[in-house]
């Protein structure tokens, strides 16, 4: 009897061990997709759809830090090293990526660089009239690219995800990578992309209609301005305290007065800020207007969306829907 019991115990132990190894192997066989920022993560999530159990999808910047101040941890580098697909923005803020990829274990990794994917759709950073000029030594780390045919370096605006039209192009690139790495589920990925592209198109149409119906065609930010791609899509004009990637936090007297006069001149009812802004500059601008009654409104640049928000229902489209509501109010 004891021998039978011992035999059963050994068999149970072996079965448990085999099951555990099988589960580990199953996990290791999952397609590994690593993304830096939330828009990339959510586009991939939408295309993966009900094949989520086959994919290990990672959001590196999931703790609220934004792209411009992120530095990868050792664990982040390890995740990138074994990724099947790695998706990143590709601007100067991602300067650390080159070394991470050089030392990657997976030499067959598919790498998607958003700026490279968009090619000539990427815009140079624009310094508008009235904008606070950055100190050169503080600005040097921003998005410098050297053009061989031009002796000057160009600073590119990284915030390409804030265009629904760019999102459609970039989602298609992600879908193509998924199909390449997981051909067995390619039909599902293609169908999910078609559905998602239609939803992006529908929201794009809503933006265009809202702008067409709006009484005003200019917005004003008492903050950084990462929405260049969005305003250009719909023919809007803008003024702002700083460029999108500025490290500045204090606006000069000249900038505040210039923007306050623009609020008066254009009859604007609001001054906008981004989600990480404290509104201090916006309120100072309003205090220097004639009526002093403009509202402070917040648009989300989707730079600091957390993993927790992603897990509790926040999506790229839900944020862009909310931004449309704010934009519509700002253009009244």
Key phrases:
13% strand; alpha/beta; 332 residues
Helix/strand layout:
Blueprint: H1 2-28, E1 31-35, H2 38-48, E2 55-59, H3 74-81, E3 85-88, H4 97-102, E4 110-113, H5 114-118, H6 136-139, E5 144-146, E6 153-155, H7 164-181, H8 186-213, E7 218-221, H9 228-233, E8 237-240, H10 253-266, E9 270-274, H11 280-287, E10 295-299, H12 307-311, H13 316-330
Parallel strand pairs: 1-2, 1-3, 3-4, 7-8, 9-10
Antiparallel strand pairs: 5-6
Helix pairs in contact: 2-7, 7-8, 8-13, 10-11
Task: Kindly describe this structure.
By secondary structure, the chain is of the alpha/beta class. It contains 13 helices and 10 strands. It has helices at residues 2-28, 38-48, 74-81, 97-102, 114-118, 136-139, 164-181, 186-213, 228-233, 253-266, 280-287, 307-311, 316-330, and strands at residues 31-35, 55-59, 85-88, 110-113, 144-146, 153-155, 218-221, 237-240, 270-274, 295-299. Helix 2 (38-48) packs across helix 7 and helix 10 packs across helix 11. It starts with a helix and ends with a helix.
How many distinct helices? Answer: 13
Largest sheet data = 4 strands, parallel
Q: Residue-averaged pLDDT, rounded? A: 88
Low-confidence sequence ranges: 14-27, 135-151
Helix content: 40-55%
In total, the number of strands is 10
SSE-based structural type: alpha/beta
Oligomer classification: single chain
Q: H/E series, N to C?
A: HEHEHEHEHHEEHHEHEHEHEHH
């Amino acid at each position: 009897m004891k021998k039978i019991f011992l035999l059963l115990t050994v068999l149970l132990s072996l079965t448990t061990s085999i099951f555990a190894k099988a589960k580990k192997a199953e996990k290791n066989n999952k397609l590994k997709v690593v993304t830096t920022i939330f828009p990339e993560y959510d586009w991939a999530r939408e295309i993966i759809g009900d094949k989520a159990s086959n994919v290990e999808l990672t959001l590196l910047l999931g703790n609220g830090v934004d792209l411009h101040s992120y530095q990868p941890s050792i664990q982040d580098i390890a995740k990138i090293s074994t990724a099947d697909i790695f998706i990143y923005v590709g601007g100067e803020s991602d300067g650390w990526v080159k070394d991470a990829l050089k030392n990657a274990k997976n030499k067959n990794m598919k790498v998607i660089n958003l700026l490279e994917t968009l090619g000539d759709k990427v815009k140079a950073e624009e310094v508008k009239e009235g904008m606070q000029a950055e100190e050169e030594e503080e600005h040097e780390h921003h998005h410098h690219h050297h053009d061989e045919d031009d002796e000057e370096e160009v600073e590119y605006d990284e915030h390409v995800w804030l265009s629904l039209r760019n999102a459609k192009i970039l989602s298609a690139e992600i879908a193509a990578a998924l199909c390449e790495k997981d051909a067995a589920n390619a039909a599902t990925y293609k169908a999910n992309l078609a559905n998602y592209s239609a939803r992006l198109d529908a929201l794009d149409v809503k933006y265009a209609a809202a702008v067409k119906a709006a009484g005003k065609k200019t917005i004003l930010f008492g903050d950084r301005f990462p929405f260049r791609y969005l305003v250009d899509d719909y023919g809007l004009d803008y003024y702002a305290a700083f460029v999108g990637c500025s490290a500045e936090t204090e606006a000069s007297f000249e900038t505040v007065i210039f923007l306050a006069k623009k609020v008066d001149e254009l009859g604007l009812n609001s001054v906008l800020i981004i989600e990480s802004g404290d509104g201090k500059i916006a309120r100072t601008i309003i205090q220097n207007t004639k009526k002093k009654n403009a509202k402070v409104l917040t648009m989300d640049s989707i730079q600091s969306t957390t993993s927790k928000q992603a897990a509790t229902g926040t999506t790229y489209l839900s944020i862009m829907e909310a931004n449309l509501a704010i934009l519509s109010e700002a253009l009244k």
